[in-house]
Amino acid sequence: MKFGLRLIQWHGTPKRLIALSALAEEAGFDEVWFPHDPFMLNTWALASATAMRTSRVAVASIATNPYTTDPAEIATFLATLDLLSGGRAAIGIGLHTDAMVEWTGHDAADHVERTRAAVDVVRRLLRGETVTGPVGPFEWSEECFLRFEPLRPDPPILVAAWDREYLELSGEIGDGSLPMITPPASAANMVAPILEGARRAGRDPVELDIAGCAWLSISAEPTAAADMLRPMVAYFGPYLEEHALGTIGLTPADFAPLRELVDAGRLAEASAAVTDDMFRLAVVGTPDQVVEQVQALADAGVTQVNLGGPLGPDPEEAIRLVGSKVIPHFR
Question: How far apart are CA 35 and CA 97, in angstroms?
């Protein structure tokens, strides 16, 4: 089992996020990921700064979408980050929800076709090819080639996916997959189509890095860990997929009252309305409890637990707890 840390804007300033990245390296994490969300702190700047601050961990951008970011930009970013980091760059191309892309005026109905084409183009550019003509929805001229030599022709490209067809695509074309496992109980349901896509493409599924993206809240005090999740569950819970929620007996209707409160700017009230069942959306609890939950993810076929969300009441202490109490169990 590999351990990735997914750092969100929630934790503060860019400088603090970079400091948390360096702490993650010291604690024994394998990878540091930054979500690529519209209108939030820019993942490319954060990843580049992290590459210069660290020396061992892989550094990556997750859910870099092929709508607001052209494949040429993705390729040059990935290759440049690989040069900066000395061969530690990776990327997750795709999206975890179509809603954020649609905020920017794009119709994401063709996300499977567009992601397939974007991954193809990025790989070809990194191999030194000139990409011409139509590739899916993209149209390329004879001037479409890199003007510098990448350090590696094949840095890892994972696919960030959520629905069944998309998950199958990630197993078919990705070096790995980045499914959201919110709740963690949905992990097996996410892994199955990934493996199906890989087998259908004639690939050995064991080669895939299935990086399950979970919310984490860890603390020596279980009540404090759960309470820290409340705002995140209230804000993001209404966007989760019905099939995933069903694995813990919840439906989108259960989150409708929370969404009304959040939309009205009453996040504190929405947080207070989070039920005990909703805490099951995350990996949550004491280090021993977290070890049990991560083991369940490993048993479901997850090969990397990609931990994000609030992390815990004290993010620095949460990173240290994972490094000292959780990661050693899997080494």
Answer: 12
